[in-house]
Structures are given as C-alpha cells and as structure tokens.
Amino acid sequence: MEKRTDFFNLGTDELNDLYQELQEKYNEYKNQILKLDMSRGKPCPEQLELSMEMLDILNSDEQLKAMDGTDCRNYGGVDGISEAKELFSQMLGVSTKEIILGGNSSLNMMYDTLSRAMLLGVSEGELPWGKLPKVKFLCPSPGYDRHFAICELLHIEMITIDMNQDGPDMDTVELLISEDDSIKGIWCAPKYSNPDGITYSDEIVDRLACMKTKARDFRIFWDDAYTVHHLSDKPDQLKNILTACKTAGNPNRVYMFSSTSKITFPGSGIAMLASSEDNVNFIKKQFGIQTIGPDKINQLRHARFLQSLDNLNVHMKKQAAIIRPKFDLVLHHLEADLGGKNIAVWNKPNGGYFISLNTLDGCAKEVVSMAAKIGVTLTNAGATYPYGKDPRNRNIRIAPTFPSIHELKLAIEVLCVCVQLVSIKKILAGRI
Amino acid sequence: MEKRTDFFNLGTDELNDLYQELQEKYNEYKNQILKLDMSRGKPCPEQLELSMEMLDILNSDEQLKAMDGTDCRNYGGVDGISEAKELFSQMLGVSTKEIILGGNSSLNMMYDTLSRAMLLGVSEGELPWGKLPKVKFLCPSPGYDRHFAICELLHIEMITIDMNQDGPDMDTVELLISEDDSIKGIWCAPKYSNPDGITYSDEIVDRLACMKTKARDFRIFWDDAYTVHHLSDKPDQLKNILTACKTAGNPNRVYMFSSTSKITFPGSGIAMLASSEDNVNFIKKQFGIQTIGPDKINQLRHARFLQSLDNLNVHMKKQAAIIRPKFDLVLHHLEADLGGKNIAVWNKPNGGYFISLNTLDGCAKEVVSMAAKIGVTLTNAGATYPYGKDPRNRNIRIAPTFPSIHELKLAIEVLCVCVQLVSIKKILAGRI
C-alpha cells in the first residue's frame, strides 16, 4: 500500500486489510507490557540537571542580603526582592513597579487572583464577582486543562471559543463581551499555547487590548508560561499585551502570569504576576494581609543563578537542545505514520511543551483509551476543553518532554497505530 | 520617694513632682535621637545564624530524591514529601494522614483556608460561607492582629471575647455559639499566645472541643505558632485539640496551623495545616486544582536539617538561649520601673514571642504615641483587638526578640517612662 494514501480514497477491503495489519501491530505492543507517559508537560531529569548549580549559590558562608540590604532570611516584603523583580520584569517586558513575585506556582497565583476577584472585586469600588448571580469566562480551546479546572472549582461558567492559527476567534469574543456583562474574563495562553503551540498575532493582541467590554471590570488572564521557551532559532514574537492595553486606554485590563517552573525547577521556581501599577498596588494591599510574603531566599538563589536576561536565554538554549530532538521525533513519526492519510492534523510548534493532534471528529476518546489499554498514558481526551468536553472529540495533547527518546519513540508509534485503527473503524462505519 | 509606691496613694504634689522628673528623663531620651523597634515578632540575626547550615545540606552533588523516590525538583505532590510530613506531624501530635504541608507562610494557609470556606464551604454539601448574609468569628483578645486583618479583609464580623489567664472566656463563647449559627469560627493562638503568652488549660481545650455549636460547619482556627518555642525549662503543656475534638465526637471541628518560620527562616520556612482525615482529604482535592504543589526542595532541606523531633527541640533550646535574656531584661525593667505602682500589669510567658503589658484603662494609645515621638516603635495600640479597637485602650504588645540587648534596654526604659507619665496624667485628671 502507498504510504501516504488518503484513507478516504481506499476501498473497504483495503481498509479492512489495513485494519488487520495494524491490529496485529497493536497486539505486539500489548505483549511488550509498556508503561509510557506522555500526559504532562514535565521537564525530564536532564533538563533539571541544568539548574543544579543553583543549589550551590547560597551557602552558610554567604550573606543572604539582597541588593538593597534586605535580609532575605527574615520577614518582610510582599512583592519580591529588587534583583529578582528587575530580572523578571525584563523577561516580561514590564517595569519593576508592574510586577509582583509570588511563591513557586503561577497556577496558584492565577487561582489566588481569581479567588480574590470573587471575594473582593478587582479594583476599588467594583463589586466582588462572587456577589453576582453569574460569572462567565471565555475559554479559547483547546486550552490548558488547569485553567478550566479553576473556573469549574469556583463555579464560573465557561464559554468555549475556537482557536485559530493566530489566536482565539476574535469575532466571537468581541460579540460576546460587548453584549454580556457577566463575562468577566478570558483565559489566554498566548505564546506557544498549551496545547496548540500557537503564538497570538499582533492583530489578536491589539483586538484583545482594544475591544469594548460590557463589563467594566473585565480581565484578561494572560498565562505567558512559555515566554522564553523557544524550540526554534527563529522564535515567535508576542506583542506586549500590557503596553497594548495602555495604548488602547485599558491599562488595567490584563493580568500577566509567568514562572521559572520550566526554566529552573518545576517544584521550586518563582511565580510572577505583572499588571498595571494601579492593579499591582491594589493587589499588594491585599497581599500584605493574606501572606507574610514570598520566599526571598529562593528569589535570591534564582537572581544570582540566572543573573541576567541574556544569561537566562543562554540557559534556555540548553533546555531547547535537550527537548528539541523529542519534538522532532514526534513530528517525524506523525508525518511518517499519519501524513497524507487525511485522518489527522497537527501543529509544528516553535516553542512550548506540547504538540496538539486533531484526529477525525469523534475519535480522540477511543484513541486515548486504546493507547491506555496497552500502557501508553496520554492526557485525557477532552481535557483541553471546558468541562472536559471536546465538542468534536478530536483533540489529543502530546507532551514529549519527560519520556526518554526511546520511550517516546515507542509511545508515539503506539499512538499512531491507535489513530489509524480508530480512523478506519470510523470511516468504515460511515460507509454502512 | 519609695520606689514601689502605689501611685494612687501619692498626693497630687508628689505626683506633680514625679511627673516633672519623668518629663526630664523623657526629654533626655528625646535628645538621643533613638530609632528602636519593638513592634514585630521577628527573630534577630543571631537566631537566623542557627539555621545557616541548612543552606549547605542540598547541593549539586546531591540526589534530590525524597525517601519514597520522589524527585523533589519536579512537579508532583500537593501535600508534602513523606519525611517532612513525618517530622511535622510528630511536632503537632497528629498522624501523617492528618497533615498538609504548604508554602512558606502559615498566615497564607489560614487566609487560604478561610477564603476557601467563603467560596466553597468547609465540607461536601455545606454552603459556602460567602453565600450567607453574614459570617461572624469569635476573636479572643488581645490576640494576633493579622488574624483580625484577614477577617476584616473578607468582611467577616468579629466579636471580641475576653482572654482569661487560662484561655478565652468560655462561658461567653459557649453562650454565643449555641445561639447564633452565623458564628462560623473562632481564632485561637493556644500556646504562648500572641500577645499574652498564655497557654490554654486542658479544661478550655476540652470545652472548645465539646461545646454545642448552632452552626454545623463551625471551625476552630488553631494557630499553634509557638508549639516548640519554649523559654522556660518547664514548658507549658497544651492538650491536643484534634484528639479532644475526636473524643468529643466533633472530629472535623478544628484546623491546626503551624510553621517553621521561627524555627528556621521566617521568610523561607514550611507552613502546615493539620486536621481530621476527612477535612484533609476535602482540602487536598481543592489544593490539587489551586496549585501545582508546595516547594519540595525546601521541604527536603528542612527534613534533612532538622532530622527528628528530638533534634528540633535541641535546635529550639539554642533559639531560647538567645532570646531568653531579652525577655528577662524586659521583665526586669518592667518590675523595677513599674512594679508595685498599681499602674500596669503584665505576664511572664514561658515561651512565644511577646510580652503583653496592660496599662491603666485609657492610656495605651498615648503611651505608644509618646514613645513613637522619640523614636521607639511599638505595635500600634489597639492592634491586638478586632478592628484595631481595644475597648479599654490599655493593651501594649512588646516584641523583645529582634532588637539587640542594648537597644532593648533603652527601648524598655523609654516605654516605662511613658507609661508612668501617662498614668500620672490620668490619675491627676481623675482628681479634678
């Protein structure tokens, strides 16, 4: 059989034969008793080794004083030490007055920001969202399952918005937010998006910054998790949303989030929130009550290890050198096994942590379940959509970074066999 | 003049002469241009030095693996690594299934627990407190200002409860909570309490555990901040509240909080929450959504440095050796300058971080303000009461740990002069 034949052009007998052949392959894998995991965007051990020297930077001979003399061991300071704010504000393209450093989890900062919006409102004089009969969020999808889980936990109604190749479907976004003042926010993963690997175009950023929202206190939750996480030598460029919002006369519209989770250590990094000075000052007042402040020793460790934005970028090139071959491997196998068959499409991301695979409509759940049955774990089908419901049941998120090359090769082979099996079944069912 | 004479027994002329004399002393201090701070319970640099070796424990040659094989550098785990849970559950007298380790701030865990209660309720099927027209908390006072600040931020109405020498006035507590189901909680600082240094008696603990509350979802917020922070060789013993609650048939009534903030580094310690398994499991489900989990590397660092409860207690004896002389100095001066004069009373705590001084009614604000005018900063008068309002305007919190012995001596001398000046004015005013 021609390798790259459109499955829809194959006769029923041909498809049946192919099914048989693939089923045999599937059974062979089954006999190998695999235990492979492509489900979460976790750095692999080799990536973590790159930051081990950070552990040597502070020791008992050191003064644990920040640039401005702050004793990092003691209480004090709710928004972070100067040198760390300096570095990370450069990374995000904001001023040091527009950033707050948090604990080790940007997800937690997002949850916390949203829960404060629910309990206290987002600015002086605005009603807490929790006092309203209904709060809705726009969720460009496929998107990050953990954003959606936060909304679900807080009983915020989610509205699925299609993702295009340049970002969310803005026509729909603009229409909805101009009419419904219970829509209070939108989740965005604007750079090397989870899972599509898409970077929003300048036009999309500008439309988000400029659009007229019926809710005065509408907020963009801008999760810029992969801002320095390039895989290509020609990295994507993301327009600065905070600047765009200021230019548009909506300076308080956006909360930017990021972290060093995939720069240094995922469990022990630095999370950050950037926004207008007004928003930052409003939040700092609340922060001063809700916490004694973030771990300043870990901030000092990070500032001294990463040193400068240039040095941070050099560090990220080392990260890329480790994970790029894994992305290449996955893309190579997808092309070799599924290319030209008209049963799946996928993106080739220039950065980030995921490859997003779309099967024929109605096939994703079965593919994931077939792979799971023989020991290959993928992110649950549907997880990339609000309420875990992919309306077309076609999106599968592939996370290639954690497994070894050897494991990854096996896992992707299994995935491709499953996609083909389920696709053939679906095509044949359509012919009855 | 007899040193220890009751001021109320002195004649008006004698008091006027004394006032003159003290005013001259006050002016002398004024000319010294002091800058002394007894306002916050901060460890002093010598205390922080005791934990510096903790920074050497993990370095680039180490495997950052927890006992159970967890790679502490990576994602995973919401409730803490085994060895740290083991150690701190022993410290709090609970099982490892009854503890959750958090970030670096127990205050933040308290805020977070309360904000989740407001948004989501405290157990399956209970209404979120934020959905009720009113939520009230009982606040034994004097108490910890930051507990009260959290309530104020979240618009929880605070009811002041008197503190006796063995804990809160339980007759009033029991009466109120049996009648009013909008009373959802009580703040307790049960051991070496902030600021009184009181430890709740067994009877008080039992009454808290057994009392009938009108609200089914009533919770005790048990801030056991100073559980191992003894100053005396005969430390106070606090009855285990979780055990008491279980025995009383109210296993889910209490959230215990503690941290290593004043064991290792205040800015970079480990916070913890302990409660019944039911409560812990309920919270862990939400934790799994709101965060990627706490900093496991810092937990590993703490577990390896502190090693065991015995070793932790040895470490705490070194802390005590540094700060006990400071407490002794303050107590000595209070006795020498204010003793027998019938114008002030204070506690002699066996542990903790504070000495609580009660002046004559109506004097605290003026004393604190007079001291501030010549460069001696005390915690704001009133701060130890809900809404910053001490109904008798008499409580002053002294935090002796941070200043050096020399600074502390000066500061306490100034304080004693101010107390006497304001007291004389008050007594004389009463005679007109």
Based on the model shown, name its key terms.
homodimer, 432 residues, alpha/beta, 3-stranded antiparallel β-sheet, Aspartate Aminotransferase, domain 1, globular, 2 domains, Aspartate Aminotransferase, domain 2
List the helices and strands and how they pair.
The structure is a homodimer of 432-residue chains.
Chain A (H helix, E strand, L loop, with lengths): L11 H20 L4 E3 L6 H5 L4 H4 L24 H11 L6 E3 L4 H15 L15 E6 L3 H9 L3 E8 L2 E2 L1 H10 L3 E6 L13 H9 L8 E5 L17 H7 L6 E6 L11 E4 L2 H14 L5 H11 L2 H30 L5 E3 L8 E5 L4 H10 L2 E3 L16 E4 L6 H27 L1
Parallel strand pairs in A: 1-12, 3-4, 3-6, 6-7, 7-8
Antiparallel strand pairs in A: 2-9, 4-5, 8-9, 10-11, 11-13
Helix pairs in contact in A: 1-14, 8-9, 12-14, 13-14
Unreliable residue runs of chain A: none
By CATH, the architecture of the largest domain in chain A is named 3-Layer(aba) Sandwich
CATH fold-level name of the largest domain in chain A = Aspartate Aminotransferase, domain 2
Supply the CATH class of the largest domain in chain A.
Alpha Beta
Largest interface: A-B, 56 and 56 residues
**What does the average pLDDT of chain A come to?**
96
C-alpha end-to-end distance of chain A: 23 Å
